[in-house]
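Entry details:
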Amino acid sequence: MKIKKVSIISPCYNGESYLVRFFDSLMAQDYPVVEFIFVNDGSTDGTEKIFEEYRPKLEAKGWNVIYLKQENAGQAAAISAGLKIFTGDYLLWPDSDDILYPHHIAEKVALMEESPAAGIGFCRLEMIDENTPDKPVCVLERRKVGMKDDFAGDLLISRNILWPPVGAVIRASAFLDVNPAREIYAGTVGQNFQMFFPVAVKYPVVYTDKILGAYLIRQNSHSRLQNDYEKRQFDHEDTWVHTIMRAPLTNEEKTRAVIRAVNHFECLKDAYSGKFFPAVSAAENRKTRKIKLFGFIPLLKICRKKNKTVVKLFDFIPFLKVK
């Protein structure tokens, strides 16, 4: 039987302080048919040098190694560059500071092969601190609740989600079915939501109880340096809406999904500011904002009116009023 090919897309920006650990974890893998796409997102440190040191070692394993280099454009754009060219049957997109434990790739392939209808598979992860990597802080996992596993619904409100991409594997045929353009929206956050959600609305999810990798906590990581909490919620909301509107859903399903996501992020912003649905004048209404599809097509207008969130499609058709 033909061995399935696994494509690994790994974006990296200035990763010299942790790349050796990541590459060593790749070297420890025993899976033979791998396409490794390393995307250097405009690094200004020794990232390229470290990659070139490991390239022949990875190729000696029989892996096909592809190097892409671009001007710094952000993680989403770097992932999209890899999505344009990958050719594998399964897709992984670990961050370049993640760690893959031995047999990681083989175990994920086995998980998906056992469930041919599944679009996404998840393992469990250890969370470790960069200063004490030998002492796991905790185990990360997505927990199935009840008989119905509503992964797509949970994604909309960030509930019970294993976000680190090293915990996931996607079936390439499922991904290309829902994303034939092979790209994700180049927002500043939410790359993993974009990878998960379109697949999750159409395909089931499977799990293994095995711990197959580690998510590294770094004090200077991009997510930890984003100290403007409210802006992050605006950014997440923007990415969520763009992704929903491009997902394989009916217009009614998109409307319901947008309602749920927008209300979730509006509540988070209000909770942070200590204001729950305040009555404010139009001049004071910090909630009014517009979202444009692809950056220029007017899509949604979101505003807060007294005790309700109002969302208008194309700035004039109201389709959401929710307390």
